[in-house]
Amino acid sequence: MYVSCTIADLMESKESTEFDAWLHLASIGNKIILDLPIKKHKHFYKWNNKGKRLNSYIITDRYIQFSFEIETGPKKEGNKLLGIDTGINALASLSNSRKALKQRIDEVVQAIIVNPRLMSLTNISA
User: Fold this and answer.
1) Is 92 found in the same domain as 63?
2) What pTM was estimated for this model as a whole?
3) What is the rounded distance in angstroms from the CA atom of residue 66 to the CA atom of residue 11?
């Protein structure tokens, strides 16, 4: 069950020493209200310290999954990277829109090793 902040709220436990928090679920059919006990663990604390906990939850019969928003910094430039995917119509399709139709995959890899900047892949058929 996916639950958002419209019907769920994580409330810190003030009285209980067994549980760290309670997930309060309201408006679940026929005016049912549930309070699910939560015991936080090291992964929760790790991500909670690194970022902001979001108010959406995934609830299963065995656990409750929390989501966190983490700042990852500026996006890295990927202009020197090449992706290779095996295909149906071509042996290898490259992310620079070229295709290796006749070469074997080890020849494609060798071309990449020889020219790591990938400025020109003249020995690969289009």
Assistant:
1) no
2) 0.52
3) 14
